[in-house]
Backbone:
């Protein structure tokens, strides 16, 4: 079984900040090595590895093979390769293995609530939640390691202390962090069984046909672009995902929508909204940083570019968060204000629509 450091590194194949392809790198670094037993019967390599790497899904291993990360006797193999006795299986990456140690940093946090069991953070856009390849400092976990340095759960060897969920780097909003192992397990169970509640506010391109709707479609890594997640409606790949949305305000060529998560997949709202034809405004990764709706007039193009400058990220904010408290066993919920950059972009669209109506 792989140790925790190796597991964290293998997880980076699933992180969207991993934009490297081993076949394009000049130097490769071994992160895993397994040797098949002398009595090993023929077995697909994805099945072999899923039983030897803790928490690694078969889809994740298949994606790693497709990227050329999995090798037998130093040659890339496909996920259906059948290993045999004495095969040497390695997993390589284009960056060296790193023994991760959390560095406590005195980084200001916007704390919405704190008690003996948990802390609610209103994360600012631009902050990465936990350390990973390319982001070993300056993350929320580095800040928590400083703020909660006297608690047993927050030690230098755990890259995800207290985390039961996360939000993207450029998404703002509410995040709950456990302060004890008991609280972490209690909260994690609620996120797993979908009894917690989370709503987001997003500015999206276009006008959804219905005022309310539900998007159902498995989410997994895109087959065309590993930095994106894609929707697989037939359920042949990815993980089950459900997003409920409601239009809050129609602003001409964009709409303000509320999204309620029934599941919590990587980039769920971003991928689901693109899937139904309404990418998030200024979402570079999912094509929302282009003018997708509107006129061809130069004045309009300049208006949209100005909005992009005001809001240099995807227009997504984790607005509310609710769950059963670990100690009191009472339901509590929290609400956060839409941040200034996103609010300014919304106001600009309101002004644009008002100006059109007065023409």
Residues:
């Amino acid at each position: 079984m792989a140790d925790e450091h190796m597991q964290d590194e293998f997880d980076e194949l699933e992180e969207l900040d991993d934009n490297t392809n081993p076949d394009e790198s000049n130097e490769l670094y071994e992160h895993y090595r397994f040797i098949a037993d002398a009595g090993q019967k023929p077995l697909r390599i994805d099945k072999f590895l899923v039983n030897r790497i803790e928490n690694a899904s078969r889809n994740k291993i298949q994606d790693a093979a497709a990227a050329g990360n999995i090798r037998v006797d130093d040659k890339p193999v496909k996920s259906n390769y059948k290993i045999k006795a004495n095969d040497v299986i390695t997993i390589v990456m284009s960056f060296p293995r790193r023994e991760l140690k959390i560095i406590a940093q005195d980084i200001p946090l916007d704390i919405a609530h704190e008690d003996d069991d948990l802390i609610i953070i209103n994360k600012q856009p631009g902050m990465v939640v936990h350390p990973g390849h390319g982001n070993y400092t300056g993350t929320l976990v580095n800040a928590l390691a400083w703020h909660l340095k006297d608690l047993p759960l927050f030690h230098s060897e755990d890259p995800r202390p207290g985390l039961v969920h996360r939000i993207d780097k450029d998404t703002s909003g509410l995040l709950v962090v456990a302060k004890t192992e008991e609280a972490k397990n209690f909260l994690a169970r609620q996120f797993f069984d979908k009894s917690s509640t989370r709503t987001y506010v997003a500015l999206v391109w276009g006008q959804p046909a219905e005022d309310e709707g539900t998007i159902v479609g498995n989410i997994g890594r895109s087959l065309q672009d590993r930095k994106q997640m894609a929707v697989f409606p037939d359920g042949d790949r990815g993980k089950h995902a459900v997003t409920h949305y409601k239009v809050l305000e129609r602003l001409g060529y964009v709409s303000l929508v509320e999204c309620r998560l029934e599941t919590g997949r990587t980039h769920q709202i971003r991928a689901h909204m693109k899937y139904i034809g309404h990418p998030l405004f200024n979402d570079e990764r999912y094509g929302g940083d282009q003018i997708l709706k509107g006129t061809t007039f130069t004045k309009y193009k300049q208006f949209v570019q100005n909005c992009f400058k005001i809001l240099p990220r995807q227009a997504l904010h984790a607005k509310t968060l609710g769950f059963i408290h670990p100690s009191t066993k009472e339901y509590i919920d929290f609400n956060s204000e839409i941040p200034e950059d996103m609010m300014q972009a919304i106001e600009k669209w309101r002004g644009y629509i008002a100006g059109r109506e007065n023409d």
Observations:
- Residues 1-26 have pLDDT under 50 and may be disordered.
- The CA atoms of residues 125 and 170 lie 5 Å apart.
- The radius of gyration is 22 Å.
